[in-house]
Amino acid sequence: GFTETELEKRLRESNPPVIGRIDHERLLLDLRTVSPDQDQALTKVLVNLGGRKWKEGDTAEVRQLTPLRSS
């Protein structure tokens, strides 16, 4: 795996860039700053970073993000 610093750097350099913050040795992403129309792009970055190549039609990961949103 990556250290939180390596992960933060890789996400910041991704396309599109994903900005998080490190707190108590953990990288945190605030999904309140991600609009629903950006879910698929964020999921694509996270899936690719995890070592699995994103395939068009991958929607399960996007659906998993939705319950994490706060109104």
| Helix content, binned percent | 25-40%
Sheet with the most strands, sense and barrel status:
2 strands, antiparallel
In whole angstroms, the N-to-C terminal distance is 32 Å
| Low-confidence regions | 65-69
Helices, by number, come to 3
Query: N-to-C SSE series?
Result: HEEHH
Structural class: mainly alpha
* Gross geometry: globular
The average pLDDT value, as a whole number, equals: 79
In which order are the strands of the major sheet placed? 1-2
Spatial extent as radius of gyration: 12 Å
How many strands? 2
What proportion of the residues form beta strands (DSSP E)? 5-15%
Write up this protein:
The chain has about 70 residues and is mostly helical. It has helices at about 5-10, 40-50, 60-65; strands at about 20-25, 25-30. It has a two-stranded antiparallel ribbon. The chain is globular. About 5% of the residues are buried. Residues about 65-70 have low confidence and may be disordered.
